[in-house]
């Protein structure tokens, strides 16, 4: 499988494109290991310098991950998250061809702090419903989600929220459709408990997305924080 030595395109770029085509064709699925540098040299009839430059180009574009002492691996598929729209995790997974999942970690009625009470329009003495769920894609944990609802949505306390879409349940039960949001992004580091849920190391960098979400009327709203494994997401603004 020789490259074209007469072409004006450098050999490392030709090799990078050959490997990229193999990735697109599914020859090397996400998470799998590419052939070694030595194997690629033999397969394509090029030097190790050429192979390394090709792999470096793929690495810089996020298509592969190079792990010293272990080899080069195909990068996991990233979830594309459009921050300008309101899209449920369930719908995002389906658009990416993944099976969405959810496991309820906690559901409880709690007194709000001052900021949450103001955002949710709660009166003194009113409680909020707190729902914490681990969100899964094809059975793999990708984010930890905590949502806070005002009294109108307390019916969720009695719902089975495992492997269910909150948006769909709310729409079916109340007719409310959430259409607008205001988001704040921040890099945080996983606590011991968060790391256990997400199957990452304690202190692993996570992307925190805090959202205030409301419907067209502005009267129905909830608060949400999603702690995402950062290298599994691609954000669009």
Automatic annotation (TrEMBL):
GO biological process: negative regulation of DNA-templated transcription
A single MF term (Gene Ontology): DNA binding
InterPro entries noted in UniProt: Bact_HTH_transcr_reg, Chorismate_lyase_/UTRA_dom_sf, Tscrpt_reg_HTH_GntR, UTRA, WH-like_DNA-bd_sf, WH_DNA-bd_sf
Keyword Lipid biosynthesis: no
CDD domains membership: WHTH_GntR
Residues in HTH gntR-type domain copies: 9-77
Keyword rRNA-binding: no
Protein name: GntR family transcriptional regulator
Source organism of this protein record: Candidatus Acutalibacter pullistercoris
Organism lineage: Bacteria, Bacillati, Bacillota, Clostridia, Eubacteriales
């Amino acid at each position: 499988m020789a490259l074209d030595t007469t072409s004006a395109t450098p050999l490392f770029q030709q090799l990078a494109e050959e490997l990229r085509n193999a990735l697109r064709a599914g020859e090397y699925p996400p998470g799998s290991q590419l052939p070694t540098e030595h194997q690629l040299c033999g397969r394509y009839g090029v030097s190790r310098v050429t192979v390394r430059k090709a792999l470096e180009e793929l690495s810089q574009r996020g298509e592969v991950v190079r792990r010293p002492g272990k080899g080069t691996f195909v990068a996991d598929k990233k979830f594309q998250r459009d921050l300008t729209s309101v899209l449920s995790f369930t719908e995002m997974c389906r658009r990416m061809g993944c099976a969405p999942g959810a496991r309820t970690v906690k559901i409880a009625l709690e007194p709000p702090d001052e900021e949450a009470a103001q955002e949710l329009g709660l009166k003194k003495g009113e409680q909020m419903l707190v729902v914490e769920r681990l969100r899964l894609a094809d059975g793999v944990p990708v984010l930890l989600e905590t949502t806070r609802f005002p009294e109108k949505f307390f019916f969720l306390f009695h719902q089975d929220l495992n492997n269910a879409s909150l948006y769909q349940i709310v729409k079916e039960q109340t007719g409310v459709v959430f259409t607008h949001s205001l988001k704040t992004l921040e890099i945080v580091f996983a606590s011991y408990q968060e790391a256990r849920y997400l199957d990452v190391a304690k202190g692993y960098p996570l992307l925190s997305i805090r959202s205030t979400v409301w419907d067209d009327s502005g009267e129905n709203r909830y608060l949400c924080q999603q702690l995402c494994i950062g290298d599994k997401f691609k954000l669009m603004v």
